């Protein structure tokens, strides 16, 4: 396996070099020689991962023409994201698919290029077996063709031949094993998704499991076409669908809801609909579709940033309350407008005990208030949310009573698996922080890695800071990183920093490594941290020269920084999705 991986990496570097040369203006003889070398290299690999190489449209067109000219029966993954691919490049790749040379392909990654509507149409034609010849690739390697390779005796006989009259492989599937298609960030629009939907509806990608169309400017018409494909029965293997940041509005949501309710998506496990402008009407339609019980395998429901208000939250609460999606593990309702009433109804749904598999609950930015947290506390006391690993409650106007309910559950051991707790930008006061610090001190949440309390201070900050410091000085085994706006005049924090400054090292501090970094960065002692690292580095070198094993240095601020935000704006794969099996 190791030897195979090394060979794959070496071959990838060679392929990249060849494509960059083929993408330039070359004489015919040079182009033919390079093309022949590329054909030889392509026979060695099962994976071509050229993501983020910026090879350009001409280089990718040369790759597509090489793939057209010779079957690559072992190739399972083709990753070409972020390569500035335009019409010619995608047409060449589509042509290779269309002539049946990529029958083993399982993953096709074309996100963050310039494919557009025309490129998506070419790709859809490729799935259907319609041949497409790119002009640029033809100019680069004009003396090599599919017909030339078709005369070779070693060509596989089971690839199928294009129908001469219709130019379509009617009975032959060009990509029978293709399970993952990434097309995010390509601005394919309604026209592109309609063409793609036609191929999917006709069953030309029979093994599709993951489809990502994030940020493609898909409107209601495109969503309607895709919904028809979803309810056709030819996408029954679909497990994850990412349609985030497409403005298909409530009208598109209703089309999607009909597809969910059709019963033709039995394998669907993850549905990403963040920032689709669906509003209350769209959320209600989605909720009613889920209530039909036709998507019982759903594990991930992402409705972040859709302006869903109280009525929408109440409909979603009914679905949870009645247990229509019993396998649900992730619920993301960040940045909606539930208000106190909508949040309370939703949290009361957890008391029914029909969400026991929940691992990730994100309610940031909904102003749910204390009453909602207290309702959640009841579910926690009954161990109905014992599986929670991440709980996001930032920007929710939560005060002492709400935090007290959470702390009570922590102290009683009702959240044994909790790893991340966010209470940023609430109204905690010092009493709330002291209560949380006491839970940390007692180490009742042994798996907790992050506790975020940014912009959530009030009351006596000195006491709150003292309590947090005490939690670490009294519990050496504590590994939780606390993110807190430490007051500049905090006596406890200043005393610890002064101790570190006088001694020239942080070894005397009874704090874990992560906390040392937090103190230095949060209190603005970046220069002190740098000076401390410098002193330790010199001391380590001196000890190394004396034959003594050197100790570890103080971590950089990178190691103690806050975890990345819940939703990443630079990728089509939401951060929560990477925790599960859909990041193929």
UniProtKB/TrEMBL annotation:
Composition skew (Basic residues), residue ranges: 531-542
GO process annotations (BP): nuclear export
Compositional bias of kind Polar residues: 566-584
Record SMART domains: LRR_RI (SM00368), LRR_TYP (SM00369)
MF terms (GO), sorted A to Z: GTPase activator activity; small GTPase binding
Disordered: region residues: 531-584
GO CC terms: cytosol; nucleus; perinuclear region of cytoplasm
Sorted UniProt keywords: GTPase activation, Leucine-rich repeat, Repeat
Descriptive protein name: WPP domain-containing protein
Classification lineage: Eukaryota, Viridiplantae, Streptophyta, Embryophyta, Marchantiophyta
